[in-house]
Write a structure and sequence with these properties.
Blueprint lengths: L1 H17 L11 H23 L2 H4 L1 H19 L3 H41 L2 H4 L1 H19 L3 H41 L2 H4 L1 H19 L3 H39 L2 H4 L1 H20 L2 H40 L14 H8 L7 H18 L7 H41 L3
Helix pairs in contact: 1-2, 2-4, 2-5, 4-5, 5-7, 5-8, 7-8, 8-10, 8-11, 10-11, 11-13, 11-14, 13-14, 14-16, 15-16, 16-17
């Protein structure tokens, strides 16, 4: 206490001697001048208090900076630069106080670090992450040695490093387990995508890295486990993405084929399903859910194929309906018209229709029945003109046969009459 009072007394004498020069002041400058004088006085007192506590030994740099700032404050005050004078005076006080607190702060840091290390040991962190825990203990010892040498800035650095090592010791076991689990999931995904057959070298390297990560985890070498598991995952993900994109490209190709086939007109429902699956593929890729993305891509391909088939059938049916309409409107005047191949199933259905009462009714009924079959969607590609022509042909042939039979009957009767008359004539 006595040393502190002497320091304050000396500081006052120092300040007043340093500020002995008083510039001419206006009435408006008096207040600012006195305020800066008070701050300079306080800064000098803070510096002397730090010196009295031994700061020249354990906080020499901070104390020197405080002294320089104090001198700058005096110069600025003499020049009536009150803002700079105030700024430098405040800086001098802050550095002096920091110098005074460095020792206490360093000591408190060591105490807190000792508590943290003790808590970590109770939680068996030294068993789960021995390497990082050892670093924390070593940095604590270095901090103690620096304190004994009054190197308080070094104490703070060592305490900080010890805290970082303790944090790693707490986090590394969990991170290592998570990394190995992630690599295991990637191995499973790779097996489902047949990566071993597609890219055997990469798969082998990834498998070896994964096995090494498991051994490292068992031996509590968390850093090595994280590195090996990360290597395995990186190798596998590259090949997994390549494989999934093959499915995606196929899905895109099938979707384009469906659209080209007219799915938007004839199979809008199937096309919509395929497009929804395609949107989910992109979303799953962004989330890293590669196996789900592959499954969705397969669903896209299936839905797109169904849409394509349905669209082609719809196009064909539309073409048939157009042909029917054209046939009904245009008479068949060309004997050399090229006929389209008839479908056997449709022909059989036409031939088994109810018999007509006249040739004209028969032909109309035939056309009508063909139109019905086409409307139902039964395998198309048959022209009505061809079927109508077949109906006429059957009718004509039947008529000719009947005429021939009638003529034959009359001829037979006529011959019999002649023979009978010739037998009855007298000889």
């Amino acid at each position: 206490m006595r040393k502190l009072l002497i320091g304050l007394f000396l500081a006052i004498i120092f300040i007043f001697s340093g500020c002995s020069y008083r510039p001419a002041l206006t009435a408006g400058e008096e207040g600012s001048y006195h305020d800066c004088e008070a701050l300079i006085l306080q800064a000098g007192a803070d510096i002397e208090a730090a010196k009295a506590a031994g700061a020249e030994v354990f906080a020499k740099d901070s104390l020197n900076l405080a002294a320089v700032s104090l001198e700058n404050a005096k110069v600025s005050l003499a020049q009536k630069d009150f803002s700079k004078a105030k700024e430098n005076a405040l800086r001098a006080s802050a550095e002096a106080k920091r110098a005074l607190n460095e020792q206490q702060s360093a000591k408190q840091g060591i105490i807190e670090t000792e508590k943290q290390i003790a808590s970590a040991k109770e939680a068996k962190i030294d068993d789960e992450s021995p390497s990082a825990f050892r670093v924390a203990v070593d940095q604590l010892e270095a901090a103690k040695n620096a304190y004994n040498l009054n190197d308080f800035p070094l104490v703070n650095i060592c305490v900080y490093k010890s805290a970082l090592a303790l944090k790693r010791a707490n986090e590394e076991p969990v991170a290592a387990k998570n990394a190995v689990s992630a690599a295991e999931e990637d191995i499973i995904t790779a097996n489902e995508l047949k990566i071993e057959a597609i890219s055997p070298d990469s798969y082998k390297a990834a498998s070896e890295a994964y096995d090494l990560s498991k051994l490292s985890l068992e031996s509590k070498n968390n850093v090595a486990a994280i590195e090996s598991a990360g290597k395995a995952s990186k190798l596998l993900k590259t090949e997994i993405i390549k494989a999934v994109y093959l499915y995606i490209e196929q899905a895109k190709t099938d979707l384009a084929a469906a659209r080209e086939a007219g799915a938007s007109e004839f199979a809008a429902d199937k096309l919509s399903i395929a497009e929804e699956y395609m949107a989910s593929v992109n979303s799953l890729l962004e989330k890293g859910q590669f196996l789900n993305a592959k499954n969705s891509a397969e669903k896209v391909a299936i839905a797109a194929k169904e849409a394509e088939i349905k669209a082609k059938a719809g196009k064909e049916a539309k073409l048939i309906r157009t042909s029917v309409a054209a046939a009904l409107e245009t008479p068949d005047n060309s004997s050399n018209e090229t006929e389209m191949p008839a479908n056997k199933a449709v022909v059989e259905k036409i031939q088994t229709k109810k018999p007509a009462v006249s040739a004209q009714d028969n032909n109309n009924e035939t056309v009508k029945n063909v139109n019905v079959e086409i409307a139902k969607g039964d395998v198309p590609l048959i022209t009505v003109k061809a079927k109508v022509k077949d109906g006429y042909n059957i009718f004509i042939i039947t008529g000719i046969v009947v005429v021939i039979i009638i003529i034959a009957v009359f001829m037979i009767r006529f011959i019999r009459k002649i023979v009978t008359k010739s037998n009855t004539l007298p000889v």
